[in-house]
Design brief:
By secondary structure, the chain is of the alpha/beta class. Helices cover 36% and strands 18% of the residues. It has ten helices and 13 strands. The chain has a six-stranded mixed beta sheet. Helix 7 runs antiparallel to helix 8 and helix 9 packs across helix 10. The longest helix has 23 residues.
């Protein structure tokens, strides 16, 4: 049991993830019903780690009675189909991500087309574009076997052996990212997926190119997390967050600073998202070739929606400042810093 004060058995199974952002957390709720929240990427090393985590509780894939997914990314959903094949369990995911988890051809083709269109619009140089596409091709197969999915909406509830989980839509990083709230030790807690991470900020703009207004949506998510006042969050990567409202406020402040830096870059003249990304992050490789300019675009798009920057050039791929002394603060929720620390 991770925390005896929870009143139910919760085990964190740490899963390797060399393809993207480091180790993932899979959460095993072992009550009257055996439930997994997220499954890890479909590669052999991760499969062995998940099997070992279950075996330590005398369980196997065939004993899993329900899978809840926080979002469609392979490092969270990749083994869901394999577990379902072994146990026949339902696999639940938010309706916005359900077609991608099910690997419906129309959905995956549309997502791939959108990604390629975005990459072109961001002004990515051809060599980096080819590097990115080669990386994505090399990770083909990490989504695993497609499960039959059961979509849910915001506010859906799941009774997992006497523990009620409430689905909370948390868009930004992904269109269908959802957390699962429950009554915890000292108040309401949240399985937050990648909406709230303890040591780095989830990517917006590149992690799911289907999302329009990604930064605006993510800021709304962070404001909602702070308003709800969760006392602890269990993220998709690394350890628990003991002050979710404070962490949400930290991430909002981070994005405000980044937005101000983007405006500084535009002071030198119009620039593409790729150029802005290069100034922000320098040389990028692997998945970050997508995430860097995606993040830059998300901030430029947010500034454009606020009337502070506009499009320049015949194709509208460059952005330029429209306001000399903009009020950037109005573009961000005003979240009070929390008195609690240790996040």
């Amino acid at each position: 049991m991770t925390d005896p004060g929870l009143g139910f058995d919760l085990e964190v199974v740490s899963l390797g993830n060399r393809a993207f952002e480091g180790n993932n957390d899979s959460y095993l709720i072992d009550t009257e019903e055996t439930t997994l929240i997220d499954t890890g990427v479909a590669v052999e090393a991760t499969r062995r780690q998940l099997r070992a985590g279950l075996d330590a509780r005398g369980l196997g894939f065939a004993d899993v009675e329900r899978v809840l997914l926080t979002h469609h990314h392979a490092d969270h959903a990749g083994l869901a189909g394999e577990i379902q094949a072994a146990s026949g369990c339902p696999v639940h995911v938010h309706e916005a991500d359900a077609p991608l988890v099910a690997q419906e051809p129309a959905a995956t083709d549309a997502a791939e087309d959108r990604l390629r269109d975005r990459v072109d619009a961001w002004g990515m140089p051809d060599p980096k574009r080819e590097e990115l596409l080669a990386f994505l091709d090399a990770t083909d197969g990490i989504d695993g076997e497609p499960p039959e999915v059961t979509p849910f909406e915001n506010g859906a509830t799941f009774d997992v052996g006497g523990v009620e989980l409430e689905a909370v839509h948390l868009p930004g990083h992904a269109a269908g990212l959802a957390g699962f709230a429950f009554d915890g030790r000292d108040g309401e807690e949240l399985f937050s997926g990648d909406a709230l991470l303890p040591y780095y900020t989830p990517n917006v703009g590149g992690a799911d190119t289907r999302v329009d207004g990604a930064l605006a949506k993510y800021l709304d998510t962070l404001a909602a997390v702070a308003e709800r006042g969760y006392t602890r969050a269990w993220p998709g990567h690394r350890g628990p967050i003991v002050d979710p409202p404070g962490r949400a406020a930290d991430i909002v402040a981070h994005h405000r600073r980044r937005t101000e830096r983007v405006l500084e870059i535009l002071s030198d003249g119009p620039a593409t998202p790729w150029t802005v990304s290069d100034e922000l992050f320098g040389s990028l490789s692997d998945i970050h070739v997508l995430h860097g300019p995606g993040e830059a675009f998300a901030h430029l798009e947010h500034l454009e929606a606020g009337g502070i920057v506009g499009r320049a050039g015949p194709e509208g791929r460059r952005f330029e400042r429209l306001v000399d002394d903009p009020d950037v603060a109005r573009l961000f929720p005003d979240l009070p810093a929390s008195p609690r620390h240790g996040r």
